[in-house]
Write a structure and sequence with these properties.
This protein is an alpha+beta fold. It has three domains: about 10-100, DNA Primase, Chain A (Alpha-Beta Complex), CATH 3.90.580; about 115-200, no CATH class; about 200-319, Dna Topoisomerase Vi A Subunit, Chain: A, domain 2, CATH 3.40.1360. The chain is built from nine helices and 14 strands. The chain has helices spanning about 15-25, 70-80, 85-100, 125-135, 140-145, 220-225, 245-255, 265-280, 295-315, and strands spanning about 35, 50-55, 60-65, 70, 115-120, 145-155, 160-165, 170-175, 180-185, 195, 210-215, 230-235, 260-265, 285. Strands 5, 6, 7, 8, 9 and 10 form a six-stranded antiparallel β-sheet that branches. A four-stranded antiparallel β-sheet has the order 1-2-3-4. A hairpin with a 4-residue loop joins strand 3 and strand 4. The chain is globular. The termini are far apart.
């Protein structure tokens, strides 16, 4: 006779961390930390976009490759393409079978997040020059957008030792008042961007003296696009997955004759552009060259990229 001592009878009896550990086949135990893995809904994904994070004492997920998210029940619903009742029944069956030969009494308590608390600047060097010039981004453009090379930065989290990161190719993105809002590490696979403060990139450089606004996917794309001589100004959200607030969009519509988006040539970029179209009514431009504008400049040069991009922008910004 099978013992029912550890049987879970309701959905609330199943730990949310177990759901993600079990169905995502995680190598590590979840004990309050946030992790990012390749999407279970996007087979063949190369860059991890599926975030598992803790809120309160429960785990949730956000899949940026498909724009799906929710709690552990919603995850099972999507994973098995079923309704909530079937998801709960499946979860209970799998959990109770698992617990016949396993026991886990962990209690989830959210860990603090690492935060950048200090940094050291350094001088530009030849490695920096080689990196930025491949996108035709010159030193005066980097200075205009207040991009600075960093020697190192320190991250801190409650009850954990400080972590100091020191390596080549670290860049700080700064506001005009000197505040660091983002760290860019182009050679890092796991932490290419570290957000320090929320900020609509390019805001401090706006003069509102041109008729058009182009919303780009990144500051790097803004800087590459600034070389094209277009009669437009540029901004970029923290990431394509974060919508610029409606109040800012309303202000832009008051100040510019036309606005469009220019996001990455991939599934996530196209999906984000469609959101801006649906929610804000903004036309989109998808450049069918490399993944993003700056890579297109690197791969094809400014002239060829301009030849492909200009007619698309002209049509998108047409009143």
């Amino acid at each position: 006779m099978i013992s029912t001592k550890l049987q879970a009878l309701t959905a609330n009896a199943v730990p949310s961390y177990w759901v993600f550990e079990y169905y995502c086949k995680l190598d590590e135990k979840l004990s309050g930390q946030d992790i990012k893995i390749t999407s279970p809904f996007n087979v063949g994904e190369k860059n991890p976009s599926f975030c598992i994070y803790v809120k309160g004492n429960r785990y949730f997920f956000k899949d940026f490759s498909t724009d799906k998210g929710g709690n552990h029940i919603e995850f099972i619903k999507l994973l098995h393409n079923c309704d909530a009742l079937k998801a709960v029944a499946t979860m209970l069956d799998d959990y109770n079978e698992f617990m016949q030969s396993n026991y886990d009494d962990r209690y989830i308590e959210s860990e603090g997040r690492y935060e950048v608390t200090s940094y050291e600047e350094r001088q530009w060097d030849s490695l920096d020059a080689a990196y930025w010039t491949q996108f035709k981004i010159a030193s005066d453009t980097l200075k205009h957008y207040d991009v600075r090379p960093l020697e190192s930065y320190v991250m801190e989290k409650d009850n954990n030792p400080d972590v100091k990161i020191r390596k080549a190719y670290i860049y700080g993105y700064f506001r005009s008042d000197g505040q660091l809002y983002k760290i860019y590490q182009p050679k890092s696979k796991d932490n290419k961007f570290i957000k320090v403060k929320s900020y609509i990139q390019g805001t401090d450089q706006l003069k509102f003296d041109k008729p058009n606004l182009i919303i780009c996917s990144s500051l790097k794309d803004i800087m590459a696009l600034s070389n094209f001589g277009y009669n437009a100004e540029f901004v970029a959200p923290d990431s394509e997955n974060i919508m610029i607030p409606s109040g800012s969009i309303a202000m832009y519509k008051d100040r510019y004759k036309a606005i469009c988006t220019l996001f990455d040539y991939d599934e996530a970029g196209i999906r984000s552009a469609d959101k801006y179209k649906t929610i804000y009514g903004l036309n989109k431009v998808i450049l069918p060259m490399s993944k993003d504008l700056s890579d297109s400049v690197m791969d094809y040069g400014i002239d060829r990229t301009h030849e492909s991009l200009y007619p698309l922008l002209k049509e998108a910004l047409k009143k």
